[in-house]
Design a protein that fits this description.
The chain is of the alpha/beta class. It has eleven helices and 19 strands. The strands form four sheets. It has an eight-stranded mixed beta sheet with strand order 5-6-4-14-15-16-13-17. Strands 8-2-1-12-19-18 form a six-stranded mixed beta sheet, with helices on both faces. A three-stranded antiparallel beta sheet has the order 9-10-11, with no helix packed on it. Helix 3 (87-101) crosses helix 10 (372-385). The longest helix is centred in the first third of the chain and has 16 residues, at 125-140. The protein is globular.
Length: 418
């Protein structure tokens, strides 16, 4: 800083550098597109990118009510993993993790993927059996997994409280070494920039207000910036799925609940892995900036508010401090809630709908962020080919008619609902 006054630093830091190119264009919406994506989060932007890059459909508009990545994409805890129990979810999320591993090169944009590993602890005999079964499933499917003893945990996570006097003593854990975290804003802007470069129009501050149909087929999207004619519409609006689908006359098998998280002031590195303790209803990691990020279970009531609640924060922090006593004196900087669309079986929906030309992507439960690449990849295929890809064929709406549900407790804990 020598030689620079505070005023000079502030002046240069706050001044807009006119030589920097815009990351994306800011076009006015056209009157017609070959395809329209409703929702400018990670899933919608990924769908638009793969429509253009893999299927040659570049006359695409992404309509975002607010700003890019300003919805649930910016309200998650950035974990990526593929340690699922059901075969359909296991194959889908492993494909997503493989896409994650090449995503920075694919998009020519650093998405800050850090494969630091994910540890899932178990605390009861029944829980241990369930996680050992999951470990065996993963190994049989060629997915990386390691079984950790208490001694392994003492060496791998020295900050963890392994006392046998705990309310729920840690008995062991399963580690997925290739799991980790990525940066949510980088993912959204990486896909946005790559899609824009392919000719996709990304239109912000454009709220969808309805859908026009003729003879059972969608023909246009009504928006706050006028009508847009199109023959294909994809809905990717996590947290608002039921409300947007209702505009098209579709009732979805989804409930919306809040999922809360918070971060502390930054401290020196002490935790180089993500730790999830399901019996405690808590997971914890440390960001690259040193903040301690702590997440909890769903609120037990329906809401779109995206506001946190003191009762949940107190319960989650009590659990975090019990397992990691060293954080007890940290000050919390901010907290938030994301609106999660929960299906009755804990698995997503990537599907055609009863309205011809209208496609739906949602119901991601706890898996939305980690699914981003595979979600866009398979949804783009579904829209382009008008049929599901084998990876998302189990996740169509028809399963709720036929009863072929995919009960995935590995998606997270929501007692009483799945």
């Amino acid at each position: 800083m020598r030689g620079y006054s505070l005023a000079a630093i502030l002046r240069h830091g706050l001044r807009r550098n006119l030589t920097w190119p815009e990351a994306i264009r800011h076009p006015e919406p056209k009157s017609r597109y070959d395809a329209v994506i409703v929702g400018g989060g990670g899933h919608g932007l990924a769908t638009a990118y793969y429509l253009a890059s893999m299927h040659g459909i570049t006359d695409v508009a992404v309509l975002e009510r607010g700003w890019i990545g300003g919805g649930n994409t910016g309200r998650n805890t950035t974990i990526v993993r593929s340690n699922y129990g059901q075969p359909a979810n296991s194959a889908f999320y492993e494909h997503s993790l493989k896409l994650w591993e090449g995503l920075s090169d694919e998009l020519n944009f650093n998405v800050m993927l850090s494969q630091r590993g994910l540890i899932n602890t178990f605390h009861t005999a029944a829980d241990r059996e369930a996680w050992i079964r999951r470990y065996n499933f993963m190994r049989l499917r060629g997915i990386d997994a390691e079984l950790l003893s208490r001694e392994d945990l003492a060496e791998r996570v020295p900050a963890m409280n392994l006392s046998t006097d705990l309310r729920l003593p840690v008995l062991g854990a399963v580690l997925q070494p290739r799991a980790g975290v990525a940066h949510h804003d980088a993912v959204a802007w990486g896909y946005a920039r790559a899609a824009d470069a392919k000719g996709v129009d990304i239109i912000q501050n454009c709220e969808v207000t309805g859908f026009a149909r003729e003879a059972g087929r969608v023909v246009a999207v009504e928006t706050s910036r006028g009508r847009i004619d199109t023959g294909k519409v994809g809905i990717c609006v996590a947290g608002s799925s039921s409300e947007v689908a209702r505009m098209a006359g579709i009732r979805l098998p989804i409930e919306t609940h809040l999922l809360q998280a918070l971060v502390s002031e930054p401290v020196k590195p002490f935790l180089d892995v993500v730790v999830s303790a399901g019996d405690y209803g808590m997971y914890i990691s440390q960001t690259d900036k040193g903040e301690v990020l702590i997440g909890g279970p769903l609120d037990g009531y329906n809401s779109y508010s995206q506001r946190g609640s003191p009762a949940t924060i107190e319960r989650v922090l009590a659990s975090a401090v019990e397992l990691f006593p060293a954080i007890s004196r940290l000050r919390m900087m901010r907290h938030w809630a994301g609106a999660n669309d929960m299906t009755m079986d804990g698995s997503p929906i990537i599907s055609r709908t009863p309205v011809e030309g209208l496609y739906f992507n949602g119901g991601w439960c706890y898996g939305g962020f980690k699914a981003t690449p595979a979600s866009g990849w398979t949804f783009a295929y579904t829209m382009a080919e008008d049929r599901p890809h084998p990876l998302n064929e189990p996740f169509t709406l028809e399963r709720f008619e036929s009863g072929h549900l995919i009960s995935e407790r590995g998606a997270g804990r929501l007692p009483g609902l799945h």
